[in-house]
Automatic annotation (TrEMBL):
<dbReference type="GO" id="GO:0005634">
    <property type="term" value="C:nucleus"/>
</dbReference>
<dbReference type="InterPro" id="IPR036322">
    <property type="entry name" value="WD40_repeat_dom_sf"/>
</dbReference>
<dbReference type="InterPro" id="IPR058543">
    <property type="entry name" value="Beta-prop_RSE1/DDB1/CPSF1_2nd"/>
</dbReference>
<feature type="domain" description="RSE1/DDB1/CPSF1 second beta-propeller">
    <location>
        <begin position="500"/>
        <end position="850"/>
    </location>
</feature>
<dbReference type="InterPro" id="IPR015943">
    <property type="entry name" value="WD40/YVTN_repeat-like_dom_sf"/>
</dbReference>
<feature type="compositionally biased region" description="Basic and acidic residues">
    <location>
        <begin position="292"/>
        <end position="306"/>
    </location>
</feature>
<dbReference type="GO" id="GO:0003676">
    <property type="term" value="F:nucleic acid binding"/>
</dbReference>
<dbReference type="Pfam" id="PF23726">
    <property type="entry name" value="Beta-prop_RSE1_2nd"/>
</dbReference>
<dbReference type="Pfam" id="PF03178">
    <property type="entry name" value="CPSF_A"/>
</dbReference>
<dbReference type="InterPro" id="IPR018846">
    <property type="entry name" value="Beta-prop_RSE1/DDB1/CPSF1_1st"/>
</dbReference>
<feature type="domain" description="RSE1/DDB1/CPSF1 C-terminal">
    <location>
        <begin position="901"/>
        <end position="1004"/>
    </location>
</feature>
<keyword id="KW-0539">Nucleus</keyword>
<dbReference type="InterPro" id="IPR050358">
    <property type="entry name" value="RSE1/DDB1/CFT1"/>
</dbReference>
<feature type="domain" description="RSE1/DDB1/CPSF1 first beta-propeller">
    <location>
        <begin position="12"/>
        <end position="394"/>
    </location>
</feature>
<dbReference type="InterPro" id="IPR004871">
    <property type="entry name" value="RSE1/DDB1/CPSF1_C"/>
</dbReference>
<feature type="region of interest" description="Disordered">
    <location>
        <begin position="271"/>
        <end position="306"/>
    </location>
</feature>
<protein>
    <recommendedName>
        <fullName>DNA damage-binding protein 1</fullName>
    </recommendedName>
</protein>
Amino acid sequence: MRVVATFHHPSSVVQSLKCNLTQDQEHLIVAKVNRLEVFSLRSSGLHFECSLEIWGRIVSLKAIPSKDSKQSNLLVLTDHPDPKLIPLTLVLDDTGNASLLSKETIDLHDRYARPAEFVTDVYVDPTGEVAVVSCYTGRLKVIEFKNRERTGIPLDISIPELYILAMTLLYTTKDLYTLSILHYDHQGRLQLLSRDLDLRELSASPSTLLFSTILSSNVPSDSTPFLIPVLPYVSHEENGENLYSSHLGGVVVAGCGNKLLFFEHASQERQEVRKGKQRRASKRMSSGDPAEAAKAKVKEKERETKKIKPKMSVDWPWSEITAWCPADDQGRRFIIGDTFGRLAMLAFDDANGLLLIPLGETSSAVSLTYLSSQVLYLGSHFGESQLLRIHQSPFTERDAETLPIPDHVKSISAVSLPGGKGKERLDDSLEPSKKERGGQVVLGKGKFVEVLDSYENIAPIMDAVMVDLDGSGQPQIIACSGGRNSGALKIIRTGADFQEQAVIRGIENVTDIWPIRSHYEDIIDSHLIATTLHETLVFSLDGRNAVTHMDPSDHGFITRSPTLAVGNIPRRATTQNGGRVVSSYVDSSLVLQVSQEKVRVIEHDAALGLFVPVGDGWDATKEGRTIVAAAINSSQFVLGLSGGRLILLNLGENEQIQELKYRDFGDRTYGMLEISAVSCSPFDTTKKYATCIGVSFWGTNRIAILSLESATSYLTTICESDPLPSLPRSLLLHNFGQDHNPKGADYHPHVLAGLVDGTLVSFSFREKDLKDKKTFALGDVPVALAKSTVDGKPAIFASGSRASVLYWDRQRLHQSPVMIKDAVRGASISSSAFPSCLILATRSTLMIGNVRGVDKMQINSVRMGLDNPRRIAHHPTLRVFAVACIQTKPNRIGEPQETTSSLKLLDDTTFNRIASFACESDEEVTSVLTLSSSDVSSARFCVGTVQFKPGETEPSSGRILLFSLNTGPESSFQLVSSTPVSGCVYQLVSIQGMIAAAVNTSVRTAYVFIAFDPNMTIHKVILFKPEKLNNSTVVLTKVSEWNHNYSVTGLVVHGCMLIVGDAISSISFVKVDDTTLESIARDYSPLWPVSVEAMDGDGVIGANSDCNLFTFALQRSGHRSTLERNGSYYLGDMVNKFLRGSLTNIDISERKSIEPKHLFFTSTGRIGVILEMNDKISLHMTGLQRNMGKRIIGPGGVHHATFRAPANSKGHSDAEAAFGFLDGDFLEQYLGYADYTDLLQGDMDAEQVTMSHSQIQDVLEQLQSLH
């Protein structure tokens, strides 16, 4: 069974707001597609408080204020599985930790109503007493609140407006709730009107507060209008010269054309006059005289269609408006952003009416929230969300235009604005009437916006490839992300990030390194010992930019042979206590060095800055042996000698080394057992001695744990491992926990072994036995181990072909790859210049830096600005990315957009542009394919395009282009062949030396065709148009056609078959036999797939437009084949791409039970993984998920089974439940559930989960480690 889990949660912002969730603290709440994040506003910035996962798609977020306090509640509107309102309250526990709590849910579902066409939103009156929800056509849901608590059930109020584009609650008097509505009427005209809500009569009668008016009908189809309510304002000017400085409040209409229009509320007197007219008209229409009634109706229609001039207006010079927010409490200033990130301030000015002041360029905003002190939060879907500060004077680029303003838009410089002292008056050539109604666009200089902080966003992900860029074996994802002015390629990988701080060059062939201190109890390292296969080097750490190689005559280290171990040791002192001799250890400047022949004690002379040998040391050659392995701690020195002898030494009086005990090892099969590695690191780091040591052997490939607990038990065997796959060459005993007591909850002793075949083996050391064996692959060279500290926690740095960090988290040992190549050895270092760092030895350098973020996804951006990447392919031979881009130049709203498309070739290491190809003006790249080649010079790219023609509803023409790239001294990128096709080339794949293309020509006909050169194999086709190449002409010839679908947009190769995704229908399997296409099997259900990918066996996984995942299996019965749907699951996100593979390194020992198979990428920035779980385990996990779904209820009372039930265009069906998939993220909640026995028992005997608690923990911890 398949398991769905999340690598990266959705990062696209839906909405944001500021309110007080507690009495004395302001908060910023950010809504993403399925999650709320709460930040408190502190003097130091935004402080994360808590988050809450919502089971459903968040559509809107509002605050419910209270009259009696500053505290507000939250109101979340979701649209799956059914429309719901979820009130949320922030609560603090005894320790001050915050969490969002849902006490109830407000169900808005109406089985027979039609979902709203354009606006699904909730609006809350400023008093917090009424919330109005638009989620169905022609019907409003009204909910009443008192002191932030709901009173009564939702009320249904019908309205005649069916195609509502925007709506808002106006600022009115007490107990009056007036809606302003912008909609298309029955004649397709854009109309602004208002309605008074009567909660007793459940009616929405026409209001006289804001008179109805017809607006311009030339509204761009892709523009979303906004209605901005404005508070009443009374000018404090005494002379009263400006007639438009005071107003009664009203609404600003934004996004309807290229002007911002302010319509004022009607005065009480005008309202009474209008009400009188309405009463008289109503009386006439209800009279018995048909002629009089008809005349009254005509008169009323004329009144409704009458155009009313706005009180004030101002030109909007930029693109469609996407977000706005008030910038003060008086309703005098508003921040407005457009789709290309251009930010401006709309201000009501006493002297000039409406002023539009450009501020600068940011990410494309979908949400703006003013916080305080000119600080603004910008939430984005297409770029990074940002924390901004708006300055009163230019912040940067003081001589450049703040924002470009079209020449035909009249603007005025700030110094020419009237009304200020010393400023000039307006141009007298303007007509008085226009001067009064029109506002001013200010022509500014410099950027007024400063980015204080950015929040990573990888949405929307349109396409992705997974490649190993540096040959480290750790794959990375290159994703086409962003949009508008924030196009980018995102380089995504899991694992830790090494932040390099310094590089020491010219030190080659280092095999091991040890930092040492001047004194044992010092915390700063002063010297560095490095060894090669032939010599030992000593360096003095003199500063950040100074490392001195010490002359051998200046120190007493053995330098003419390699060093096996070295470290600081304390001096042993003895005292008399009641007739007993008591030994203790005191601070010293002693250093112990172990070479292949000798053990030497050296003392550091601080006055001279030299190291001097002391004592006689210990010589292995006197026993006729050599030292083959060594490990030391503060008081114990363990040596592995040739001939299979292990010897234990320590430091006696007068710096003399004394021998405590030795043991010879042998085996009946192998005879004398040579020692390969030893370790004596204490599990309790507060002690200066170890109670056990580890030793590994040649031949048997075993690890033995020996006792050091007492003199009588020295070097006796405690336990022994089974034979390992290969020889252990590095051994380490390590406690990953913070507890030093073996009985402590955070005491996790482990035995780690680095093998010569590039694998790392770990055991937990519990109950005097080696348990929980895990194996990790780190390449194919011997693995070296070193202790380190990562993010303040103890960790192990492992270096092989690939570098990795092992750490303890969530009750499990985790491995996190580190993006470092050729790291031979690592060691912790803490010098005055580089505190708490890691030093790494490579083949030719030493690097110093920090490892950060072991449990995070590392994301880097290659910014492309207006070039929005849409398709990407990687050519491994050429080491080149082919990226299809679309560039839309910023235009003024309502004006034609200029869109261009291009293909860019980027170096896969530096991401520098190598070459590019610009499409024709009416052409767009829709698919990219790289063609493999054995000869680099003949490698090429295949590109599919679509050509747009005016008036076409479905494209009827496109091209398939072939390119050649010569990467030699004279690099060239050439278009070598062009083949016209009758439709859009949605997808290109390579199969059996041919190119298969999904081409759509109309709604009714589509075909898949295969093209090849009949005289050459495909790797010779490098020409785009008929040209000579090697004395031959290459062309693309259509050899087969398959036209049994409506609109083929997905195409995947699976062996000798093509998996075809029809955007209108479903899935088909087509066999490629030589040059013919044969339909094998087909699903006929209206599935509407948007992306598909092949699975192991004859299976397919896909996603459809209703945000569901599905799977099919090809079933064969005799000569007949059918597609059986064996999985359906609601994801809540639109999946744009599937990739086979995984980002994580799998524990080799666990591959059989759970194995990652696919990655998927969505439009909201979610990256997920599809894992395959074996049948035995999945049966238990299915029962566990069922039991958990009954006990764990989501916010708003949503049940898990209901949430994951597949959705369709009409919502969800009660008859169909999710099957074939398990929710991995939900199952992992079991690990933090207190009363797990309740989940295992179920409600009846048949629901009991028979797998033990510890086994379930192991499975779910394993699942956690894979995403």
